[in-house]
Queue: 3 jobs
Job 1
Amino acid sequence: MSSTWVVGETNADGSLAKISTELATLARNLADAGGPTPVGVVVGADPGRAATELAAYLPRVVAVAAPDAADHAWAAVAGDRVAALVGADGPGYVLVSASPDGRDLGGTVAGLLGWGVLGNAIAVTWADEGPSVEMSVFGGRLLTTSALNGGRGVITVRPNAAAAAAAAAPGVVETAAPPTGTLPAVRIVERVAEAEAIAPIDEARVVIAGGRGVGGPEGFGIVEELAKALGGVVGASRAAVDAGWISYAHQVGQTGKIVKPQLYVALGISGAIQHKVGMQTAETIIAVNRDPEAPIVEFADVVVVGDLFEFVPALLDALKARRGG
């Protein structure tokens, strides 16, 4: 049986991205259910660190040094190299993240190999003849289950589709000579760091999110207070981001981040389907809204019908009193 490849992504400092640990765990779970052997692939200017970290999750990781990845768009460089390696090794399936880079890489690999693609998977399980891929479509209104024809293809997977868990024993890291690229490299002319960098909301255990109901940018002050009191991070609905009240880095939903915290508190968020897609898998959802018929009422675990500017200060006072001032 052919293998399943997991293409690892790296952070700016060369470490392995969290989503790649989730993909590796997913590939291992597929193998345990009867699927192909999982193999990791890391392509980068200096792939050593990320490859070693990925080997904590997979039995075998291939590190491919591609010096041009340092000053060129990574997805194009890595996609080109992965496609060339796939042609030589012949894995059946390639798993990549549904991040912007991951989607670009997946499309590059599929285009060069002529393979099919299933995108934005929220769950992947092993069936009799291959992976069964569950996807959320039409803004989260429908869930579909699909398969790939021919025993091969590319699957892009959303964050939090699997809980990362290291293997019982670390795997081995091998190096492979970088194959010659066939695509023109896209040179990076400028890098811009986000001015309001925050802790990644898709990794947070507690998310306090504000929506249109906070009334404006100043309304996020109380959201930040509650997040600080509960040891969480600040999230936001698309409506609040589109209004310019808070940066896109905080956006939760179909066009933002997919989060899976232990606690999600929605302040002044109606809970439209596009937002629900991004947070519905939270363990506990608390909604504070003046409208008892808001969509979020249907799926929240606890609903507070009232003014968030009255409720949150009272909650903060209660938390303060409980902690002895």
Job 2
Amino acid sequence: MGKILVTGGTGFIGSHTCVSLINAGYEIVVMDNLCNSKVESLARVSLITGKNPRFYKTDLNDYKEMCQIFEDHKIDAVIHFAGLKAVGESVKLPLTYYHNNISGTINLLKVMEKYGCHKFIFSSSATVYGENNPVPYTEDMPTSATNPYGYTKVMIEQILKDVCTSNSDWKVISLRYFNPIGAHESGLMGENPNGIPNNLVPYIAQVALGKLDKLHVFGNDYDTPDGTGVRDYIHVMDLAEGHVAALKYANSVNGFEAINLGTGKGSSVLDVVKAYEKACGKKIPLEIVARRPGDIAESYADATKASEVLNWKATYSLEKMCTDSWNFTKQNPKGL
């Protein structure tokens, strides 16, 4: 059996998925340009699994370097995590996002085509449901976006559909994630962004540590039970297992298939804050500030399809997600 190439494999979701893949018996090769992660996360993967995956520090847009990976290894499938992912930053730096996410993916697909590798699991996002679809989101809804980051996901999905139309050898699964949080329960791995976190839970973690003064809650006047935004939070290890399930299922896919990975249940920002306070035993100071442009009131999955075709279900509670996140934060106060 060939190896699995994991792009963006030192990032939050990528590194946790590396653990699940190795534990499921797959041999993996990891590439990342380390622009928003640290190579230390692979050392943690090794500590947890006892295996040392081969690592390439390279950029998706570097055609020659990407070809080298395929020259060095027989790659059977690619799980594609590599991409910039901060909504606010994408509004400020649209060209950077389009170049990195879209051009990088096109380059990767060209290299895969050259080496006859056609199995592809893509890291998509619930953001492709835009702002006009009613919740819960189902895979057959029309896609759109509210910011450049979201548009990179919408466009890449379209590119993948077109590639599948052009060549029937392609087997592509686009996994639309909801909001991954939590950490490996060993506390050795977790969300470890470079700089000030953009996502809710690592931000709360930094407040709990005392590194940041308070949490800013963007808007409390949404049409939701407590006025704050509602999202479908999913444990990163549930998400990682979803990729292993998708890899097994990919053999029976013809063309392009989109699948939601979520719990099917929404939690508000304040629900998460309460669960985190319980996990860390401290009060999280917060301030309500204006809504962020492009944010929607509610986003959660209909997770029926994943259950039916992947035989996969999210299993961890919000409390467990917050407990594992705090456990990682406490053990690694300075990050990795």
Job 3
Amino acid sequence: MYSSVDRLTERFAVDEVHTEPLGERYNIAPTTPVYAIRQAEGTRRLGTLRWGFVAPWADRSRRRPEPINARLETAADSRLFGPSVASRRCLLPADGFYEWHRPEGSAPKQPYLLAPDDGAPIAFAGIWSSWRDRGDPDATPLYSTAILTTEAQGEITAIHHRMPVILPPALWEPWLTAEPDEIDHVLTEVRSLPAPGLTATPISTRVNNARNDDPGLLEPLVE
């Protein structure tokens, strides 16, 4: 996510910005803040959410894993994600994403950069949740998010069997604003989306370490 706030504001027709710039980032890890676009009462806002979904009823003292992804095929019917699919959806902008492929044999996984063909920021279909420490009524709520995933299509099928749900501009508004009784129709449209235009580029295994966070991670692998 290296696009500026100004670029995201223009690309996604944002009405209000509710975040300080996060800066250019090339290796975003779970539990860190990510840009997120939400809409309420006709106002589209750019803010941040913590990547790693925390259910409203979660007991965080038990240290259970906090999902970063939710499967499109089952999320709407799950106790964990269903309420957010119904009424707490967001767009998670990105300039690209990484995926790993293990060649035949014992070779290590090869990372790939998947980036849009036109170079414009893309929008992952996201869901969000609000959690508050029940033992501290004055605690600040924790707002968190997960990315919906689906069966791989197009360029990514040779690399991995899953991929993020990438929403085209025509579905941004329905995804953000659909009422609970309308979401089934929107989900049907999402499930029928064609393969997104992505280019896969093999890159260095430096990306495997989240401490490496620089533009060099995007450089094509040199044999």
